[in-house]
Amino acid sequence: MILYGRNLSPFTRRVALWLAHQGRAVERRELAPVGPDFEELKMQSPVARVPVLVLDDGRRLIESFVICDYLEQTAPEGTRLIPEAGEERLDCLSRLALANSTSEKAVALVYERDRRPEEMRWDKWIDRLTGQVEGGLAAMEAAQAARGDQPRDGGDLAAVIACQFLAATSPALIAGPQPALDALVERALTWPGVEDTLPLIPAN
Fold it and tell me: At what angle do helices 123-147 and 179-188 cross, to 10 degrees?
């Protein structure tokens, strides 16, 4: 399999960590949906978005939720990250959706604050995105505190990804006390692939 996208993308990284947890071999091609990679990425995805996972039979899957669903459906025994049914499944998916939504707002904040020309930035929109990220983090902290130190699942992975993306791109937003999330991120450094895929801001 081939995975297109950089670790800086929380959505690409979610797929990368899912693959690592399931022990699947994958080739990484770290293309970005901006700059000189854009045209090459369009050859892999009709909308030039990441992630794209090319399966061994040549099929291309786009969007992290579709890719991770495929990985769950074909997971090696004992490596699923989402419970099959019941309250545990609903809890996992709810935490995953919360963390994923927080990541989406954090990415939008980066584009508005750091990518848009200064004279075109909309301060009220930046404030709104900031508030949405802060609200997401508070809810994630409460959910993680209630969960405690249970075996990792897909919701935990998504929370770690959101926190580490914010630490790389908006550290002031994640500097406050959040003991449950901080403990989760610390534990995650021992999980497959986490330390090897930490998001890095490009030099240019």
Answer: 80
